[in-house]
Amino acid sequence: MKPFFLPQRIVCLTEETTEWLYLLGEEARIVGISGYTVRPRRAREEKPKVSAFLSAKIDKILALQPDCVFGFSDLQADIASLLIKAGVQVTVFNQRSVDEIFSVLYQVAAMVGQAEQGLARLAVMRAELDAIARRAAGFKRRPRVYFEEWDEPHMSTIRWVSELMGLAGGDDVFPELALQSMGRDRIICSGQTIIERSPDIVIGSLCGKKFRPEKVAARPGWQDVPAVRTGQIFEIKSADILQPGPAALTDGVAQLHRIFSQWAALHG
User: Fold this and answer.
1) Taking the alpha carbons of 139, 143, 144, 147 in that order, is the dihedral positive or negative?
2) What gap in Å lies between CA 31 and CA 56, rounded to an integer?
3) What is the pLDDT of residues 182-199, one digit of tens each?
4) N or C end: fewer C-beta atoms under 10 angstroms in the chain?
5) Which of 87, 59, 88, 48 is nearest to 71 (CA)?
6) Which has the closest alpha carbon to 223: 233, 210, 211, 234?
7) What is the pTM assigned to this prediction?
8) Cα–Cα distance, 187 to 230 (Å, whole number)
9) d(Cα 157, Cα 205) in Å, to the nearest integer?
């Protein structure tokens, strides 16, 4: 029987599918990546960069003759539409929760003929998340956490980050906003609202610019916020936590748990 089709020339418009294909040993299939890709580092040296997040070099992508393009979220719908109209097969994932991230990673593994390896790797990631959750269950107190995805205007974090914070031992101070899939719906109009939520820890992760704890501490009226009083203001790189893929499920959640564990040891 003739083997079923597996994509041989894949363009990844975001980092998480690139990282996952490298982990699966299927990087030879990748012919183009996002310019924002930093995981794995070698991908930037080995693969042509063909897109940002909201824009892409359509002519360059077409010249690569991809038989499959992977994208993420409704924000890439316009890019997907242009490629589809040009006759390219496009798969756009729209994962927002931890469970959805696991589901998407399995789908990608299956699409390149690595379903079994994908399941094995995902089982290891799930087991480590469970182990982190068990350790966090021993905290006598859980910190209240404000996770900032953007600073001007203030924007609280997306669902998978909020869920990972919960697993790692912290409580999101804006859990209702985490349910909103679009960034514009997670904007916090007034810094006073954040002050009133009284976070014990502030974590920033800004795509495209560095998060500066000293600027957070200097915000008007923030001097009495517990996180500012005790110096509990941290940065986690966006590549480690805001990409809905392997990074968030491994390095991202590990950094969250380390921050929360240190706080719990001091305040338990």
Assistant:
1) negative
2) 14
3) 889 999 999 999 999 999
4) N
5) 88
6) 233
7) 0.95
8) 26
9) 9
